[in-house]
């Protein structure tokens, strides 16, 4: 079985046309290894692209589209929801006995951004729907709750 991904290092793209496309590789014990394409789709690709500041994924590539890697295949069946801040935060399907070789190395093509993406770990300001309502004869933006608002006369 594979150790929890929180003990793993970074993620990079190798052998692509630019810094935002290529074979997906992950670092573990100071050694880069590849990711098997079993279960690989746009959810995992989006997580990788966003993590690397490369926008959203244009495609999730299968079958060593960016060439076969070397060394370990560190991840054999990654499953992301698409909302993780890093590929290393995604789940893995353990005890997956399907055969994987470097001919199954996963890759991504990202939509390259012209400016760096903000870190995904930054909290977003909460958004709240508002309505303009009359409270004590004054117009204000209040939380959307029509039953509490009455039109100003």
UniProtKB/TrEMBL annotation:
Keywords, alphabetical: Disulfide bond
InterPro entries: SRCR, SRCR-like_dom_sf
GO biological process: zymogen activation
Disulfide pattern: 36-100, 49-110, 80-90
Domain SRCR intervals: 11-111
GO molecular function per UniProt: serine-type endopeptidase activity
Superkingdom to which the source organism belongs: Eukaryota
GO CC annotation: extracellular space; plasma membrane
SMART domains: SR (SM00202)
Protein's recorded name: SRCR domain-containing protein
Source organism: Mola mola
